[in-house]
Amino acid sequence: MRIILLGPPGSGKGTQAQLLVQRYGIVQLSTGEMLRAAVAAGTPVGLKAKEIMASGALVPDEVVVGIISDRIDQPDARNGFILDGFPRTVPQAEALDDLLKQKHLKLDAVIELRVNESALLHRVETRVAQMRERGEEVRLDDTPEVLTKRLANYRNQTEPLIHYYSERRKLSTIDGMMAIDEVTRAIHRQLLALGAVEPATRAKSVAKAAPAKKARAAKAATPKAAKKPAKTAKKPAKSTKKAAKAVKGPKAAKKTVKKAGKKAGKKAGKKAAKKATKKTARKAVKKGARKAAKKVTKKRAKR
Ligand code: AMP
Asked: I want to staple 11 with a disulfide (CB 3.0 to 4.6 A). Which of 113, 143, 207, 249 is the partner?
């Protein structure tokens, strides 16, 4: 599964990405994180990006596209990925389309987390206070001034992507103001609706969704059992039970199987009764013949 999380700074993209990673076993590709790592390691990319990031501006498109292209090729991304913070401009989105095409990969969904802008400043302030409490290093660009600039960048450069992806029928918008777990559930529902993820309880939902199909399957399984009624007369359920077990599903299917079993039993019973009558008749004829013969012998002896 390959998805993009779209939303302004503080909308909860990072938090949701981490939760989705745990749930679906895919990787989170955050350009912001990668750039911060590059800055910390002092790589050429890091040196280039350091000042730009501190000011709240965007790093040049070709730099982030290069980073993402390399990262997608890593073995851990083969199973799928969540792009967090990328693409951020229309040229980046176009470059991503080309990249995915070249690599024969398909994008499943773009999830936009829509939030109330006035709440964002408060959210980021809370995040900073919590990080300070935990003794963690606070991001240089998490100040009210830089945040205002990042928000303006989002509006001018990233928001056009909403139109870009909605035109391509990839966009799903989710209310990012809900509680964290509610947002996660809404994303999951959306991914299910798009067919991007397999339902966890696939067998159960299939059984619920298509009882008629199961019933047909059960019916198809019954004639075999009915063909061997003699053995199944007393225990008609042996083979039919197997069929029901294989179906393991709707009551309707089990009923069909039971009915067929009973039918088979009745048929076998009738056959057995017929057989028994014939046997008795034959026995009676034999007995009668024996009696007649005895009579003849007795008469002859008297003479
Ligand atoms: P983030 O952690 O996503 O908020 O990103 C932090 C900073 O990294 C941004 O303010 C930009 O300076 C830079 N950055 C991250 N992703 C991109 C991107 N896709 N394009 C350009 N700059 C980016």
From this structure: 113
Give me the tens of pLDDT residue by residue for the chain, a chain 303 residues long: 999 999 999 899 999 999 999 999 999 999 999 999 999 999 999 999 999 999 999 999 999 999 999 999 999 999 999 999 999 999 999 999 999 999 999 999 999 999 998 888 888 888 888 888 999 888 888 888 898 999 999 999 999 999 999 999 999 999 999 999 999 999 999 999 998 888 874 433 344 444 444 443 333 333 333 333 333 333 333 333 333 333 333 333 334 334 434 444 454 545 555 555 555 545 554 555 555 555 545 555 554
For ligand 1, atom 1, name the residue with the nearest CA: 32
Q: Which of 4, 28, 29, 31 should be mutated for ligand 1, with most atoms under 8 A from CB?
A: 31
Q: Catalytic annotation on 88? A: yes
* Dist. CA 74 → ligand 1 center (Å): 21
Q: Which of 2, 50, 123, 150 is catalytic?
A: 150
229 CB less than 6 Å from ligand 1? no
Domain boundaries, the chain: 2-26+79-202, 242-302
Is residue 168 annotated as part of the catalytic site, yes or no? no
69: its two tokens = 């292209």
CB < 8 Å & 24+ apart, contacts of 210-215 = 211/249, 211/250, 211/252, 211/253, 214/247, 214/249, 214/250, 214/252, 214/253, 215/250, 215/252, 215/253, 215/256
- Considering the four listed CATH numbers 3.10.310.40, 3.90.1170.20, 3.40.50.300, 3.40.50.2000, the one that applies to the domain covering 2-26+79-202 is 3.40.50.300
